[in-house]
Design a protein that fits this description.
single chain; 104 residues; mainly alpha; 4 helices; 82% helix
Length: 104
Amino acid sequence: MGFWELVVVAVVALLVLGPERLPGAIRSANKVVRNLKQFGQQMQAELSADLRAHDLHQKLKDAEAKGLLNLTESEQAALAELKQAASDVTTPLSSNEKQHEPKH
């Protein structure tokens, strides 16, 4: 929207809502826009994570098809990343809990 279009929208909003309800309407509109932006960012992050997981899965399939021999650099990196993720998941909870306990 251009500047003059925004001015026209503001004048129409002022005439329709009146000066007493306009600030509340602006706050509500800001809240809706903020929530939509936050939702968009969350969806983008989820899609990126899903695409990354799919990419890693595909590289793992390719590596397994080669019998884990003569892997490309990207396949080796994906395999290392998956091994690290697996070791992070299988780390005993007791050792993590000891690290996060408050010291007295």
